[in-house]
């Protein structure tokens, strides 16, 4: 199979993707929307994209695209321990504290806010498409006083020098990745063991009436469905209109989930089933 991932080479997403699909062709994409569009256009069979981080929360471009545009489903989830490293071009290693800009993906910059504010209080941060893209940019622009925040693999990939290790704000820093495709498949490596099952749905109430969210949650609650996440996102129509992402964990009784969806629909809700899938731990090494 052809597997898309948020690249370039050396990204956390690539590391997760390699463990999920060790024998398949991996194709990097520069943005999350381009990863998911590649699935829709038939350019790849599957794409792997980040969805949530312990420190910074939901990766909004992933959630918004999955709800508004993607016509496939989540087929799996990978969870990885994340450690961020500060790296520079080897020529600038001795004077790394004099860098003018720190580059990385917005999520990574947010994960390292304390380190950045303490070490570089007057320096600029610059968002890039991915952590690996930031490392690649530093490699290709040796004459600039810049640093990247990225994984160790990116330093190896692009020949950079790590000057500060593990700079994330908390040690227990994890990221979830969604595996998305148009058709179901059963192609995960046998070396990975599922930690459980999950169902993700997105719900909007077609009429803005009092108690709308309560009705949604009641349909899930009285059936004993265990929620691990509920989050609102703007519908991008007008102020005050939202959809809700709901993650249901250990959803062994899928019939109960389907009945809850039917009840929510009868109550005036619009439900999109994002996916029923297994959760796999993967290594950051």
TrEMBL record:
What residues correspond to the site Essential for prephenate dehydratase activity?
175
Q: Where is the Prephenate dehydratase domain?
A: 2-182
- Domain ACT residue range list: 201-278
Q: What's in the keyword line of the UniProt record?
A: Amino-acid biosynthesis, Aromatic amino acid biosynthesis, Lyase, Phenylalanine biosynthesis
Q: Which reaction does it catalyse?
A: prephenate + H(+) = 3-phenylpyruvate + CO2 + H2O
Asked whether the UniProt record includes Cell inner membrane among its keywords, one would answer: no
The record's section on Pfam families has: PDT (PF00800)
Tell me its EC number(s), please: 4.2.1.51
Q: Which Gene3D superfamilies match?
A: 3.30.70.260, Periplasmic binding protein-like II
* The protein's annotated pathway: Amino-acid biosynthesis; L-phenylalanine biosynthesis; phenylpyruvate from prephenate: step 1/1
User: Is this entry keyworded Amino-acid biosynthesis?
Assistant: yes
Spell out the protein name for this chain: Prephenate dehydratase
